[in-house]
Amino acid sequence: MQLKPSLLLSSFFAAIVAMTPAAAALAQDIVLGASVQLTGPVANTGRYYRDAYQMAIDKINADGGVKVDGKAHKLALKLYDNQSDVNLSVRQYTQLVTQDKVNLLLGGFASNFQLADSVVSEKYKIPMVQGGGASNEIFSRGFKYIFGTLAPASNYFGSTIQMMKALKDPPKSVALLYADDSFDVSTADGTRALLKSAGFNLVMDERYSSNTSDFSTLLSQVKAKNVDAVLVAGHETEILNFVRNAKSLAIAPKLYSFTVGVPSEDFRKALGKDADYAFGMTAWLPEASLKDRWFGDAEQFAKAYKAKYGYDPDYHAASGAADVEALVMAIEKAGSLNPQKVRDALASSQFDSLYGPIAFAANGQINLPQLVIQVQNGQVAEVYNAKGFVTPPKYPMPAWNAR
């Protein structure tokens, strides 16, 4: 049967009317915007944030959403791939604010990105919560709209240095190697002072170019100076190259420790048995003692994350989920989506998350102590925390041909 034109027109308008409530409901969604590295050199880490953001948003929505002035709202995520390009990331955040009109912002990975992206949030006075940048430089500019859930880079090696002092045969000489980006420079600046205060002899203090693949010259110096402990601040691909170069040159100090890589399942898979004995650090382990409003605890979060995405979360994912939770808690505390009110609520936030206790200092950064971890027989073992040794460390590291 063919409808008359007048009936077709009536049906069209009826369809429009039927669609209106759904459109109105969508308009009430709280949209969180982010630019994340999904392709390019650091995409392997960027995915933690994408997946953690979406998982936290889905869980919060499933539990009734966000209460604003007595009304329930659903969260939505507007996310772009910055292709590991910091300039593209800045343009995307500008688009998120000026064209997409998102309500609030989440961050991507790496301090140099957060350093640049936070200029956008500050300019437009839209709060950004991020767990990907730890550089002290991000939080030393007096910005009011950037909040970070990673501890200061300057203290990343703090727990490691305490552990080194507590060893039965402490290393006598130390090498500090670091990449030339904002995070690693901040880490090195703080580590020098910590080593001096602890009484260690710093015999090498060398900066290398980011994305370096050949560490042979630096490793030759480590061997020539008979260095006991090597502390390396860099990104995961650099750390992988460092270990591979060390093996190929048969250079094995008593201890080496890295700012990244060791907590990652992919890092351990990439190196296989060669990952053993590597020390690292993490602000988070999936322990049931870390209670949470939405996931129950960190252990339950980790199981749900692995079931959904097929790989284990590390502290990047946990901090990403906490970023979403921090924004939600601030919205509910403010009872408003007004950016200034949410910003003020963030500044006075204090709550327990699956990542740990969230309380931002005056500069917008939290401070969680790093746990010292080590790869032992292919698995991550917690070796040292604020209370002392947890698991006996495998130290000194054996020669490559003795493993």
Q: CA-to-CA gap between the ends?
A: 81 Å
How many domains make up the coordinates? Answer: 2
User: What best-fitting shape do the alpha-carbon axes yield?
Assistant: globular
Please name the CATH topology of the largest domain: Rossmann fold
CATH architecture of the largest domain: 3-Layer(aba) Sandwich
Find the structural class using helix and strand composition: alpha/beta
Task: State which percent range the strand residues make up.
Answer: 15-25%
Mean pLDDT: 92
CATH H level of the largest domain: which superfamily? Response regulator
What's the total count of β strands? 19
C-alpha Rg (nearest Å): 24 Å
Provide a count of the helices.
Answer: 12
Strand order of the largest sheet: 4-1-5-6-7
**CATH first level of the largest domain: which class?**
Alpha Beta
| Fraction of residues in helix | 40-55%
Lay out the secondary structure.
Layout lengths: L4 H23 L2 E7 L6 H20 L3 E3 L2 E3 L1 E7 L4 H13 L5 E3 L4 H14 L3 E3 L15 E3 L9 H9 L6 E7 L2 H17 L2 E8 L7 H9 L4 E5 L2 H13 L6 E4 L6 H7 L7 E4 L8 E2 L3 E2 H12 L5 H20 L4 H9 L3 E3 L2 E3 L12 E6 L2 E7 L2 E2 L14
Short summary of the structure?
By secondary structure, the chain is of the alpha/beta class. It is built from twelve helices and 19 strands. The longest helix is centred in the first third of the chain and has 23 residues, at 5-27.
Walk me through what this model shows.
It contains 12 helices and 19 strands. It has helices at 5-27, 43-62, 86-98, 111-124, 158-166, 182-198, 216-224, 236-248, 265-271, 298-309, 315-334, 339-347; strands at 30-36, 66-68, 71-73, 75-81, 104-106, 128-130, 146-148, 173-179, 201-208, 229-233, 255-258, 279-282, 291-292, 296-297, 351-353, 356-358, 371-376, 379-385, 388-389. The strands form 6 sheets. The chain has a 5-stranded parallel sheet, sandwiched between helices. A 4-stranded parallel sheet has the order 9-8-10-11, with helices on both faces. A 4-stranded antiparallel sheet has the order 12-17-18-19, with helices on one face. The protein is globular. Mean pLDDT is 92; it is low at 1-27.
